[in-house]
Amino acid sequence: MTDVSLQTAYQDEPQFSDYFALLKPRVMTLVVFTAFVGLLAAPGGMHPFVAFCAILFIAIGGGASGALNMWWDADIDAVMRRTAKRPIPSGRVSGDEALAIGLALSAFSVVFLGLATNWVAAGLLAFTIFFYAVIYTMWLKRATPQNIVIGGAAGAFPPMIGWAAATGGVSIESVLMFALIFMWTPPHFWALALFMRSDYDDAGVPMLTVTHGRPATRRHILIYTVLLAALALAMGVTAVAGPVYLASALILNALFLKGAVAIWRRDEAMAEADNYLVERKFFKLSLLYLFAHFGAILADQALARFGLTWEVFL
């Protein structure tokens, strides 16, 4: 075999980065961060090594969900511009390999999270993987325009799992953290669907933009953003939040509402003329929105360790 043939054969072999891409590392970043905040905000304490193991296994479980999602969605991923370069549609990893990796990591993460912490957290992780891979990916995504509304629960579980890992249970605070992500997911993805234009049409995915049209999607973004803002501000008076969170929530939700109103007021002629710049800006803000809210919770927890709670400022 010539040097050129050897180089081509080597390039055709899947690399570690291809297998890692199956785990959706950018999504995993959000999973890890929100789970960490849920764990740290929980009452009591954990040994640092146990906490590290808990976050690691939650991250692996999130990655397993991503691999199973890519295995099932390989056909539509190949059609959509945003996903066509993923490992399976690009031919770098086979579907069978993705399925095996997803199942193996699912079992590994659930069992070892249970052994490291408790079986309530492990059960929540198992349900999250099942919900994302089966309920959302295999059923809701191709069946209903409410796919991202209901399916958003899968991405909302990590802080609840982190809380359960630390406490062995669920509380109103962890439910509210779950609800914050759950309500954030629809406007975040609908904004993406608006400026990605034909991707979901071409793939036959019944996203709201496809089934009800763009004007209806814009109205839904506004409605969910109003509900999200109310929920985010309400969480400011719970035990996990404090002055940093409340100040951040006031600013972030004012900006988010402003963006949602700007989207709602637009028409398709305006959208085509400026290449959906408003929707792109709103989508980018939505990424900062969630990280900033959970970052503020983290900051308030750090202040609380020095005795700087609401009582000091009242």
From TrEMBL:
Q: Where does the UniProt annotation place the signal sequence?
A: none
Supply the NCBIfam families for this chain. cyoE_ctaB, PRK04375.1-2
The protein here is known as Protoheme IX farnesyltransferase
Into which EC class is this enzyme placed?
transferase
Which residue ranges run through the membrane? 27-43, 49-72, 93-113, 119-140, 147-166, 172-195, 221-239, 245-264, 285-304
* Membrane protein topology class: Multi-pass membrane protein
**Pathway listed for it?**
Porphyrin-containing compound metabolism; heme O biosynthesis; heme O from protoheme: step 1/1
- In short, the EC number is 2.5.1.141
Which CDD domains has this protein been placed in?
PT_UbiA_Cox10
> What HAMAP family does the database record attribute to this sequence?
CyoE_CtaB
Q: What is its main location?
A: membrane
Q: Which UniProt keywords apply?
A: Cell membrane, Heme biosynthesis, Membrane, Transferase, Transmembrane, Transmembrane helix
Its gene is ctaB
GO biological process annotations for this chain's record? Answer: heme O biosynthetic process
**Listed GO cellular component terms?**
plasma membrane
The UniProt record's further free-text remark is:
Carbon 2 of the heme B porphyrin ring is defined according to the Fischer nomenclature.
Cite the Gene3D superfamilies for this sequence.
Answer: UbiA prenyltransferase
Assembly and oligomerization = Interacts with CtaA.
Please describe what this protein does. Converts heme B (protoheme IX) to heme O by substitution of the vinyl group on carbon 2 of heme B porphyrin ring with a hydroxyethyl farnesyl side group.
GO molecular-function annotation terms? protoheme IX farnesyltransferase activity
Family as reported in the entry's similarity comment: Belongs to the UbiA prenyltransferase family. Protoheme IX farnesyltransferase subfamily.
